[in-house]
Specification:
Elements (H helix, E strand, L loop, with lengths): L5 H25 L4 H18 L2 H23 L5 H10 L8 H24 L21 H18 L2
Enzyme class: hydrolase
Organism: Salipiger abyssi
Keywords: Hydrolase, Membrane, Transmembrane, Transmembrane helix
Length: about 160
C-alpha cells in the first residue's frame, strides 16, 4: 500500500497525466522539456493541492519542491542532468508523498530501464521511420530523460489510485 491517498491521486491524475505524456513526447521529439510544461505541473499542484491534500500537508509539500530544485540545480551544474529534467523533477516533487520515496526510486529505476531499452530498440529498428525528424534518434549517447521522468510520475499516480492509503 502506498502512502499517497487514493483520493489525492484521483484528484491529481487527470490533470497531471496529460502533462506527463506531453513531456515524454516533446523530450523525444526535441530533447527538451518545456518551461510551460514544468510551470503547468507546478500550477496544478498549487491549485488542485488545496483540494486534494490536508492544508498542513499541502504547505509541507513546498519543501519537497525546494529540496528537489536545489538538488536538480546542483546536478545540472555538474552536467549530470539537463535543466528541463531538473525543473520537471522539482515541479513533480510536491505531488509525491514523502512516505513513498523509496518506492518512487524503485519505480523510477524500472521505468528508466524500460524507457531506455524501448527508446534504443525503436531507434535501431524501423520504428524510428515513423517520426524521422525526432532529435532523440540522432543524439548520440544522449537520452530523453523526460520519457522516464514523465512515465514514472504518471505510473505513480495511477498506482496511487489503486493502491493508495
Amino acid at each position: 500500500m502506498l502512502s499517497i491517498s487514493a483520493a489525492s491521486a484521483i484528484w491529481f491524475a487527470p490533470f497531471v497525466i496529460p502533462i506527463c505524456l506531453y513531456v515524454c513526447f516533446t523530450d523525444m521529439r526535441e530533447l527538451r522539456i518545456t518551461n510551460q510544461a514544468n510551470l503547468a505541473l507546478f500550477v496544478i499542484f498549487v491549485a488542485v493541492g488545496l483540494i486534494a491534500l490536508p492544508f498542513d500537508a499541502y504547505l509541507w509539500r513546498y519543501t519537497h519542491f525546494a529540496a528537489v530544485l536545489v538538488a536538480g540545480i546542483a546536478l545540472n551544474a555538474g552536467g549530470v542532468m539537463g535543466a528541463g529534467d531538473a525543473k520537471f523533477a522539482a515541479a513533480a516533487a510536491p505531488l509525491v508523498h514523502v512516505g513513498d520515496l523509496r518506492f518512487l526510486m524503485a519505480l523510477f529505476a524500472v521505468t528508466l530501464l524500460a524507457a531506455f531499452l524501448s527508446h534504443r530498440i525503436a531507434k535501431w529498428s524501423g520504428l524510428q521511420r515513423l517520426a524521422p525528424e525526432w532529435k532523440s534518434w540522432s543524439s548520440g549517447k544522449r537520452f530523453p530523460m523526460g520519457l522516464a521522468l514523465g512515465g514514472t510520475l504518471a505510473l505513480y499516480l495511477i498506482l496511487g489510485i489503486f493502491y493508495g492509503s
